[in-house]
Amino acid sequence: MSAPVMPEPASPVPDLPSPTLPSPARPGTEAGAALLARLRERLSPRHVLTEDGDVAPHLAEARGLYRGRALAVLRPADTAEVAFAVGACAEAGVPVVAQGGNTGLVGGGVPHGGVVLSLARLSRIRAVDPVGATLTVEAGAVLADVQAAAEAAGLLFPLSLAAEGSCRIGGNLATNAGGTAVLAYGNARDLVLGLEVVLADGRVWNGLKALRKNNAGYDLKHLFVGSEGTLGIITAAVLKLFPRPASRAVGFVGLASPRAALDLFERLRRAAGQGLTAFEVMPRFGLEIVLAHVPGTQRPLAGRHDTYALVEFASPRPGADMAAELESALGEALEAGLAEDATIGASEAQNAALWRLRETLPEAQSREGGSIKHDVSVPLARLPEFLERAAAACRAEMPGLRPCPFGHFGDGNIHFNLSQPPGMDKAAFLASWARFNRIVHDVVHELDGSIAAEHGVGLIKRDELQHYGDPVGLDLMRRLKAALDPHDILNPGKVVALSADPPSALP
User: Fold this and answer.
1) pLDDT by residue (tens digit) across 126-172?
2) Which residue stretches does the UniProt record annotate as biased composition, category Pro residues (predicted)?
3) 116 touches 82 (CB < 8 A)
4) pTM > 0.85
5) What is the architecture of the domain spanning 125-243?
6) Other C-beta atoms within 10 Å of 399: how many?
């Protein structure tokens, strides 16, 4: 097993079209002017943005899939100003769409009327408790800054994803973000102890308790985590922290099939237990396009394999030698025929090089033309079946199509992306999005999976949720929305729609 060379980091490149949402309803000129005047008086004119150049960056989602309109962008400085702004908009009947870093991938932060409420100025670290292993932060804190604050206290905040340098913790919680550490630490939902939330009428719920145990009634925070700003606006959170790893090791493994990947995962989990902190999978096509399009990357293994797994062992134990443990476990897998080849990083630079092969795959895929994307999850034991069935069905529908399924294999979450056939018109390919939604999501549904794994529902999957969701569950969601936001002020038309004529959810 040989060590790879570390290349330089790169940024993802979007590859999606930019259609627009239907024209939003706007308040009358007189009513809108009165609302803006009231907001300027409290927030100051410089934080009520109405010029096109100031508003434009807040109108499109990260991939450019949707573009909306807004009366203004509000930039409150604290929770009290958020509460005032939401209350004023509620009285005027004007919708409010909360935004953090606007890095979402399902159109959930795109406004189609009303105002955008940016939480960027609510960026303070309110408290660090090394003994209780908690961090209290405001919703506008950038995820990387939250990680740094935990590190400064000698601890770890494990949520990690590609946009961590620009996404904000409020949005991470509102969308129940996943990322690369879910296998060991859970989703964003599992990393929060308490919340502060502004409700649709402008009241503030103070649930900022740093308690590991609290059975005093309903656990209200979980209503708002993952609600995508449709039930309330998160303004602060108490987050769980963990011991920092003292030792870690990263390996890259060549495998004969997704079934072999599952067998390897089971073996490594038995060997390392909680020490198995990542198990990411990508196909041969995925690695080949990374090597072709991302400068500085190098082939980590001599041969070519059907499936590749990036695995990580880590431990907070002083003196732990995770490289030796990973080498032993992979050596046994090679001897047993579960793996075809493997390499282990010999330094942090080489570990980063291996991770970069996985993390730059979305960028590389964008260079291959149009990409139809699905963020899905199925029970772990059924992942190989899903990958085989979904790929076969998509290829049968469109000869020359190139499936590129990759992602968080260890927790059952796959980004089942489809690259266009070489030479096909990109727009024509992307026009097939709904067709392939039905093919892929039908397989997911038959295997008791979820059509929205870590990116959320937003706008793009709202109608798919209506198609596949449990009727009783959907009714409960609508009842919750109606109870907490009876006038449909907060992010209307997303996740579940209460209005009779919501905007189209198809790209």
Assistant:
1) 999 999 999 999 999 999 999 999 999 999 999 999 889 999 999 99
2) 1-25
3) no
4) yes
5) 2-Layer Sandwich (3.30)
6) 7
